[in-house]
């Protein structure tokens, strides 16, 4: 069974920084893409940033220049360095792993998984 465990959320003042981590565990052969999404109260979940195995990244316009996503393929871990945080960044941040390849016997399966979410609050 595949699990994603997030850590690093919390309360920070405007202009501050936080680093989120997400570690994948289980009988994983490979993970194609990993990323971060967020959901603020009353709003839909939205993409923050993604990174694929080769290292190519994609960012939402509202975090470009402030957030940086990185990945340790050997550890199955993805990070999100968040700088210059704003109150509007307040949300629950979710880790996503896409195209997770697992094997059960002779059967290979590719699936997507979500973490449980970690709260980020930006407030003075």
Helix content, binned percent: under 10%
Strand percent estimate: over 45%
Shape category: elongated
SSE arrangement, N to C: EEEEEEEEEEE
Low-confidence stretches: none
Given the structure, what is the number of helices? 0
Question: Main beta sheet, described?
Answer: 7 strands, mixed
Overall mean pLDDT:
95
Q: How widely separated are the two ends?
A: 40 Å
Number of strands: 11
Radius of gyration: 15 Å
Q: Give me the secondary-structure category.
A: mainly beta
Describe it.
This protein is mainly β. 0% of the residues lie in helices and 62% in strands. It has strands spanning 3-7, 10-12, 18-25, 28-39, 46-52, 57-59, 67-72, 77-82, 91-104, 107-114, 118-122. The termini are far apart.
Features:
0% helix, elongated, mainly beta, 4-stranded antiparallel beta sheet, 124 residues
Give a brief outline of the structure.
By secondary structure, the chain is an all-beta fold.
Describe how the helices and strands are arranged.
Elements: E1 3-7, E2 10-12, E3 18-25, E4 28-39, E5 46-52, E6 57-59, E7 67-72, E8 77-82, E9 91-104, E10 107-114, E11 118-122
Parallel strand pairs: 2-11
Antiparallel strand pairs: 1-3, 3-8, 4-5, 4-9, 5-6, 7-8, 9-10, 9-11
């Amino acid at each position: 069974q595949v699990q994603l465990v997030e850590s690093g959320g919390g309360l920070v003042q405007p202009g501050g920084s936080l680093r989120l981590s997400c570690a994948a565990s289980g009988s994983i052969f490979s993970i194609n893409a990993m990323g971060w999404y967020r959901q603020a109260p009353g709003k839909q979940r939205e993409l923050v940033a993604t990174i694929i195995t080769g290292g190519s990244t994609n960012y939402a316009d509202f975090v470009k220049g402030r957030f940086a996503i990185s990945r340790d393929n050997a550890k199955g871990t993805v990070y999100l360095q968040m700088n210059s945080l704003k109150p509007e960044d307040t949300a629950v941040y979710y880790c996503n792993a896409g195209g997770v390849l697992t094997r059960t016997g002779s059967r290979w399966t590719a699936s997507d998984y979500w973490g449980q979410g970690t709260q980020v609050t930006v407030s003075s």
